[in-house]
Amino acid sequence: MEIVKHPNKILGQKLKKIKQVTPEIKRLIEAMHQTVIEANGVGLTANQVGEDWAVFVIDKKLAEENGVPDVYINPEVTESSRELAELEEGCLSLPDYWRPVTRPKKIKLKALDENGKKIKFKAKGFLARVLQHEVDHINGLLIKDRIK
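RESULT FIELD:
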């Protein structure tokens, strides 16, 4: 799969919710996992490979280390801490673009896993940042949109 680069229009649109986890969606998820590995990324959202579906994957090792899933369907950040942290972020769709981005240190996230089962958990630190970055993609936002 090829990674879509800015200024492709799909990167700026809110993605469609997935009503059912079909074999087509499962194939997309598998291909996204392979693509994020090949690109040395930590996360990848469907619009970054040209698909209009509200799904992202994160690095399997990051997921395992934090005891969380590596697939998120229809994700939503439901709570954010007031405490913020600034860290330099990059994006596979914005090659060679690294900028400091301020985000909440802790979040609560709800989504469906790759089998359509509801998941809900708290995340902090780097995991929280990665999840927020990918949820931004679901909502049509890039890191350049977060910079003041």
